[in-house]
Amino acid sequence: MLEFIVVPLFLAIVAAIVCGVVGTLTVVRSSTYVAGAVSHTILAGLGFAQYSNTIGLLPFYLAPDVAALVTAVGVAIIISILQFNGKVKQDTTLSAVWAIGMAVGLLFLSITPGYQTDLLRYMFGSIAIVTMSEVYFVLVLALLIVSCCYLFWRGILASCFNANLLRLNGGRAFFFELLISIMSAVAIVVLVKTVGIVLVIALITLPSMAALGMRLSLWMAMLVSGVLAFLALAFGIIVSIYFDIEAAAPTVICIATVAMLIKLLKRGKLNENKN
User: Fold this and answer.
1) What CATH number does residue 153 fall under?
2) In total, how many domains does the chain have?
3) Is residue 270 within a helix (H) or strand (E), and if so which, with residue range?
4) Dist. CA 172–CA 188, nearest whole Å
5) pTM score, two decimals?
6) Residue 67: pLDDT band by 50, 70, 90 thresholds?
7) Mean pLDDT across the stretch 44-72?
8) Closest by Cα among 102, 82, 69, 44 to 178
9) How far, in Å, CA of 171 to CA of 104, rounded?
């Protein structure tokens, strides 16, 4: 039993770190809808990879993880450029990207011969049955995210809380907004491994919403968010192994319950102070 838990728990630790860092930035920047749009466009990359590998469209094997990463980063860059230049409204852009990404993915899957069993792992997560090669891939992505956050922390902070002032002062506003968008895209690819495309937006936002609701500093909110994400993922893994179900559902239910309890406790405390 131990060997079936160690690898998923290690992936849970890596995913929790990513969730704590990027999830908190996502909530602070109010870019949850952007993360949702990027996560669903991953299906287009996965669908193309599945189609290409099945019929031999490309002269090489296109790893689904690589296709998902390229798609997510590419879409994040496009969204950032359109939003920064103010070419179209944000809701219009994201709605179109969300729909087109899903449509293209479904199109590739519908014309791919055979039944696509591997796709279910990406749709609903597969943290309980991950391989070490997948863990190494996710670990490299996580290290890139943490390194970028450490190297460009001041600019990221300015972009999150005072982007307009950064522009006025001649700061590299677009660079930092683009960097955060790419970090979010990479984080989504990491987290899709745990809870899948369908529920990844919940794992990105709920732990950070709960942590920020405690009125903590940004660094402390990242830490608390990461801890909450790990506990929820660990709960999901244990439930998955013992009851033979997907880990995504109990993971999200767990963190949603915790977030709701924190919000209720905070509201109760505020009511007591008023009285």
Assistant:
1) 1.10.3470.10
2) 1
3) helix 248-274
4) 25
5) 0.88
6) very high
7) 92
8) 82
9) 37
Which residues have a Cβ under 8 Å from the Cβ of 257 and sit 6 or more positions away?
Answer: none
Kindly report which listed range (6-10, 92-96, 191-195, 245-249) carries the lowest average pLDDT score: 92-96
The boundaries of the domain holding residue 72 are 2-274
Taking Cα atoms as reference points, which of 226, 76, 94, 222 lies closest to residue 157?
222
Q: How far apart are CA 90 and CA 224, in angstroms?
A: 30
Phi-psi region of 125 (alpha: psi -120 to 50; beta: other; left: phi over 0): left
Q: Which of 267, 10, 229, 237 is nearest to 132 (CA)?
A: 10
Q: How far apart are the first and last CA of the chain?
A: 52
SS3 169: coil
**Can you tell me the distance from the alpha carbon of 232 to that of 203, in angstroms, rounded to the nearest whole number?**
9
In Å, how far from its chain's centre is CA 181?
A: 11
DSSP 113: S
The dihedral built from the CA positions of residue 124, 178, 158 and 152, taken in this order, carries a sign that is: positive
Give the 3-state secondary structure of residue 130. coil
CB 54 within 8 A of CB 238: no
Q: What is the DSSP letter of 247?
A: S
CB atoms inside a 10 Å sphere around CB 8: 25
The residue behind tokens 């849970």 is 12
At 195 the three-state DSSP class reads helix
CA distances (Å), origin 43, targets 31, 99, 105, 110: 20, 11, 5, 12
Question: In 3-state terms, what secondary structure has residue 36?
Answer: helix
Mean pLDDT of the chain: 85
- Residue 50 CA to residue 182 CA, distance in Å, equals 24
